[in-house]
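Task: sequence design from structure.
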């Protein structure tokens, strides 16, 4: 891709995100979401492979439908209340339509089927953007309207997302699809606590972004698109694979790593809200995700292929691991002792 075009699309992503997260008017928020959608589509389809073009078309259709629903929701609310302010979402039909639109944009169950397919057809760097940066504007809109949303609908979506994200990730061999189902599962954790403590949702999203960016950068360095290549990537970068294992275990939520912090606080808050049953169910469902994270960690550091493979074993890698991966891995693994400071800052 032309460097100037790439710069334009990257700046458009930053602009669209900034417009959405800083606006109070529905039309401005919608404009930012549309700029984001139009900027990411060329990055998805830049390889011109049929699978990438298919992913770009799927992404465009889903995002266009979700944006239409969002605009329709805001128009109904303005018709009944005379308000275009995002925080004044008082009409129940508008609230239901907005929840549906944002669920489509994020890939929450039952609107999740597009997300693994789009990630699988995208390059690793674009898949990283889709899993992290592109989720920030919709989550911001959810945070701004959290007081108006339906708690039963959000809790149902959250628990089913945690269940399907863990269950459907079990039999995957493609790393991008595994990370897509991981994203769906983590969105369930963020959504279930949204109404009761929006700051916890934001903290969980920030930590999820740090860990996911680390994993995508590590996979991009070793060019590991599936488990069979991940199994022999330790010959290229053994230190990076050890760091990848730590980040995967942190993403799974194992103590004493940083990924345990949001799950611990979310379970505590749900118990305080007398939602013990929901906390128990979502905790048990997280074991499904733990299984495939452990499988990824096992493949990346311990397992050797049991038979000859078609992949060329390399003892040296052309582009050495970047310093950013080392910093992000440290944050992913070692932030738990700093949890009082994190909680005080949000």
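Answer:
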């Amino acid at each position: 891709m032309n460097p100037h075009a790439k710069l334009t699309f990257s700046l458009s992503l930053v602009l669209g995100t900034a417009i959405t997260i800083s606006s109070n008017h529905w039309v401005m928020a919608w404009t930012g979401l549309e700029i984001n959608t139009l900027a990411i589509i060329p990055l998805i389809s830049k390889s011109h492979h049929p699978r990438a073009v298919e992913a770009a078309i799927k992404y465009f259709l889903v995002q266009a439908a979700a944006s239409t629903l969002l605009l329709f929701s805001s128009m109904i609310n303005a018709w009944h209340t005379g308000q275009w302010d995002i925080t004044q979402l008082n009409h129940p039909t508008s609230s239901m339509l907005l929840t549906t639109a944002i669920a489509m944009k994020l890939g929450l169950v039952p609107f999740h089927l597009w997300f693994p397919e789009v990630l699988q057809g995208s390059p690793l760097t674009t898949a990283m953007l889709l899993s992290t940066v592109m989720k920030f504007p919709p989550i911001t809109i959810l945070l701004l309207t959290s007081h108006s949303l339906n708690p039963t609908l959000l809790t149902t979506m959250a628990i089913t997302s945690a269940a399907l994200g863990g269950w459907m990730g079990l039999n995957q061999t493609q790393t991008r699809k595994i990370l897509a189902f991981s994203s769906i599962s983590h969105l369930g954790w963020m959504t279930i606590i949204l109404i009761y403590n929006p700051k916890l949702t934001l903290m969980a999203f920030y930590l999820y972004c740090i860990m996911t960016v680390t994993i995508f950068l590590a996979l991009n360095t070793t060019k590991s698109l599936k488990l069979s290549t991940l199994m022999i990537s330790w010959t290229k970068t053994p230190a990076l694979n050890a760091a990848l294992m730590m980040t995967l275990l942190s993403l799974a939520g194992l103590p004493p790593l940083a990924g345990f912090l949001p799950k611990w606080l979310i379970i505590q808050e749900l118990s305080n809200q007398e939602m013990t049953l929901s906390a128990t169910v979502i905790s048990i469902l997280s074991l499904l995700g733990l299984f495939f994270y452990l499988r990824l960690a096992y493949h990346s550091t311990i397992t050797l292929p049991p038979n000859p493979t078609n992949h060329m074993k390399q003892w040296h890698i052309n582009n050495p691991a970047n310093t950013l991966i080392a910093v992000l891995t440290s944050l992913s693994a070692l932030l738990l002792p700093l949890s009082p400071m994190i909680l005080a800052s949000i």
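Residues 150-345 form one domain.
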